[in-house]
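REQUEST ID: PR-0412
SUBMITTED BY: lab tech R.K.
PRIORITY: routine
TASK: structure prediction, single protein chain
INPUT:
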Amino acid sequence: NFTSQVRRSKPRCHFLMKATLVLSVGVYLVAALARPADANPIAGGGQHTLITTPSGNVWAFGNNSTCQLGDGTAVARMTPVQITNFTDVIAVAAGATHSLALKSDGKVYAWGYNGWGQLGDGTNLTRCAPVLLTALPNIIAIAAGDKKAAPAKG
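STATUS: complete
OUTPUT:
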C-alpha cells in the first residue's frame, strides 16, 4: 500500500483514514504507507522515514544512498524494512541523511552519512548500521537536524 506523490505544501504529518500515514518534508510529499498496527513514534528525514513499535523495533523506508535506513545496505526501500538485531528503542530522530535512536537504557545509536561528524562517533565515516555512541550515557531525548544531532541528558 505504498504510494509516492509530490505536493507543494507546508511540512506536516497527517493520518488518513486509520491505516495510512502520510509524511511530508519541505514542499514534497515523501511517502504514504500502510501503518503497522503497533506503530509508535516516527521521524521523517530528508528523504527517509523511521518508525518504532511498542516492542522497541525500528522500521525504515525511503532513500538510503548514505545508509540512513540503518539496514546494513545503501539500497533504497520502497516499503518498510526492519533494522535487524536492534531492539528496545523508545525514540528515533532523522536528519537529512542520518538517523538516531534512543534505547530504553539511555544509550544512543547513530547511522548514515557522517561527513560533518554529525553521528557523534568521533569519525567522519558513513555508517550503514547503528553504532553505539559511547560518550553519551543516560540520555533522555534525541533530535536531529539537517547536518546535526542533539541528545538531551537527564
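NOTES: Residues 1-35 have pLDDT under 50 and may be disordered.
REVIEWED BY: pending
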